[in-house]
């Protein structure tokens, strides 16, 4: 009989620092867009919201890529 793995044992997690940069950039652009909207600059606000969507997509792609990379690396 093989001993069971302790599923609650601490595991070393590798994190991609670019994901945090993307999240901060997304939050910054969101805040800038909200400030522009409050000041009545709807054109700038709209552009900032479109930029926010692009940053969110890039952040999600980084998260998915990091997960796939580290899963593949630990499997080999």
Automatic annotation (TrEMBL):
Cellular localization per UniProt: Mitochondrion membrane
Transmembrane portions of the chain: 17-37, 53-72
Residues of the HIG1 domain: 1-76
Keyword Ligase: no
Gene Ontology cellular-component annotations: mitochondrial membrane
Pfam families: HIG_1_N (PF04588)
Main localization, broad class: mitochondrion
InterPro entries noted in UniProt: Hypoxia_induced_domain (IPR007667), RCF1 (IPR050355)
Gene3D superfamilies hit by this protein: 6.10.140.1320
Keyword Transmembrane helix among record annotations: yes
Keywords: Membrane, Mitochondrion, Transmembrane, Transmembrane helix
PANTHER family registered for this protein in UniProt: HIG1 DOMAIN FAMILY MEMBER 1A, HYPOXIA-INDUCBILE GENE 1 HIG1 -RELATED
Name used for this protein in its record: HIG1 domain-containing protein
Organism of this sequence: Symbiochloris irregularis
């Amino acid at each position: 009989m093989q001993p069971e793995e302790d599923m609650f044992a601490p595991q070393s997690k590798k994190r991609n620092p670019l994901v945090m940069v993307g999240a901060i950039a997304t939050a910054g652009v969101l805040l800038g867009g909200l400030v522009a909207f409050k000041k009545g600059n709807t054109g700038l606000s709209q552009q900032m919201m479109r930029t926010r969507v692009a940053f969110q997509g890039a952040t999600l792609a980084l998260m998915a890529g990091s997960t796939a990379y580290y899963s593949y690396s630990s499997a080999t």
